[in-house]
# Entry
Amino acid sequence: MEAGVWGGLVLVFLVAELATSGALFSLPFAIGAAGAGVAALAGAPVWLQVCLFLIASAASLAGLRPIARRIDRQAPRLEVGAGRWVGRQGVVTEAIPAGPGQTGMIRLDREAWRAESSLEIPITVGSTVLVTRVDGVRLVVLPLTEVEP
# Structure
């Protein structure tokens, strides 16, 4: 193959690597294509270029995966969805009755959420609650301060 084809593949793999955050998955293939491109410039036969691409890609993939895993573990987790509310405090805006499955409303920042009591006790309006978990589309809360009715 021509060195230009390998150069094009290097660019494709580098762009793919930039499009995937922190994965380091396409970079080994860019390294392999670069090695095969150097072999093509040196006049190596196509079978040797392809073998060099496969070997260099596999070796760099094996070397970069541990680094990618370490980067992934150290990256801060972005809280998305309802799970971001676990451990946060809210205020009851509609009384939460006692009993399993009984729900009221709470306000977290500027959002209103359906909530139920984790202790199955009634929680009055104005009370401060702590979100302990998410159960479907409901938040399960623990009363922190109780406001008298």
The first helix runs from residue 3 to 19. The helical segments are 3-19, 27-41, 46-74. Residues 89 and 100 are 21 Å apart (CA to CA). The two ends are 81 Å apart (CA to CA).
